[in-house]
Amino acid sequence: MAAHLHSIRQTLERSGEDVVSALYQLNTLLDYSTREEVIKAAEVISVQLLFDCLTSNDEELVEVCCGALGKIFKALEPQKVCMYRGYIELGLQHPFERVRQTCLDTLASLIGDPNVQEMVTTSTVFHLVTQTVGDPSLKCANVTSNILFNLATQNKCSGDALAVELQGIMHKDSVVRCRVYELAAKIAVSDDTLLGSMASILVGMVQELVSDDVLVQLNCIELLILLLESSGGRQFLEQHQIVAKIHSLLSMDRAVMLIPGALKFFGCMSSLKGTDVELLCSLYPGFLHTVLDALHHPEEGTTWGVAVDTFGVLGSLLPGRKALKMSGSRLEETLKQLGRLIREGRSEVRVRSMHTLNTILSCPDDGQESRRWLTIALPQPVATLLSIARQPFPDLHMEALGVILSLSQNHWGEQEMKVVPGFVEYLLDRRTETERPGKELKYDIVHTLVSSSTAEHEFGSSVFVKLRKYDREGPFVVGETTVAFQEA
Fold this sequence. Notes:
By secondary structure, this protein is mainly α. The chain has 32 helices and no strands. The model is unreliable at 481-488 (pLDDT under 50). The chain starts with a helix and ends in a 15-residue tail after the last helix.
């Protein structure tokens, strides 16, 4: 191996036509070498020599050379990698993406090491790394963002210095601005003490809400949703009246594309612990109005999807239900519309509508209001769900069984089930499920009923015996047979 390495070195030093072939040979040797052997190989084929090869304009040569460099850097100790700081600086400025990517990947893999942290946070390297947030390559930009996020959240670099560097590249274009906004928002959410350093960037992000670039606006709304995750982020939103700004988007004709994001923002805010949902809907009536109105327009795919999900979130919370009831008759109209979509909508609309209904049923109420809402949506809920579950469409089938599982967790749900002809027979017929998820879900329904203190009374002893036998046998039975029902 040593002789082969020396031969490769000589070829690389001559810089002739055989350099690419020699680099391929080197890569093959490194692929089949132990870490210790790679380290010894690096003593023969120096990192300096490989970086000298990167001055070539031959893209294939550069690609293969980077492959070898990456393997060597991966084997070296972090302190040893830091000795090549000058070459890494050159690599970060290289015109070929592959070279920049190799240097960034090396730094990212070692960023937990104190020596590497010290090297990256020195002025020159720090500046070069930060500049690659604006790299034409999304891969390079993403790796850089992860490096900077780790440094900032581990307090290994000055948040103020990072903010200054980031602001210096924001003028490039809207794509780079959005990358900077995203990194700043993630850092701010990770630790409230870092929010102050990122505040100037976040203020700029807020100002984008009134820009003419819809894509930037959409990105900024998503990042404002991210800020809801921390107390400091929520305080920032309050200080800058973000809720009012986003609410205003719901009534702007030119902001139609922003409505899904605005609804998602309000939906996420509603689900936060401590949010006074009733007050939120009272102060910002456009939110609830838009949700209820959009539910009647499934043809508006994205907006309808966010609206139906948001309706489910509100309906699953006691404060949310109070807010919905403020809409008066519109609530009943919307529930009826939800039922129509479950029965008659396109397949994907039916699935999502059933998911929303299931979410509503998770509300921790006394059960009676959930039952009333359910029967407004579906006057014959179990019969309708059973009909859907029998259809040969996996998504519809599984979603219908999921709602039935929720019903099985309530005494009133048992009462709804027992009066539907064929329901128990269907439940106990194992042949209806051919896939593992379906078998498990149907078993969960049976197990829930068997665990209930009221199911035996509701279904009768003879049926309950069969349910208990199904439960004992588990979700999977070899040689399943038809369930026979005979009068006791």
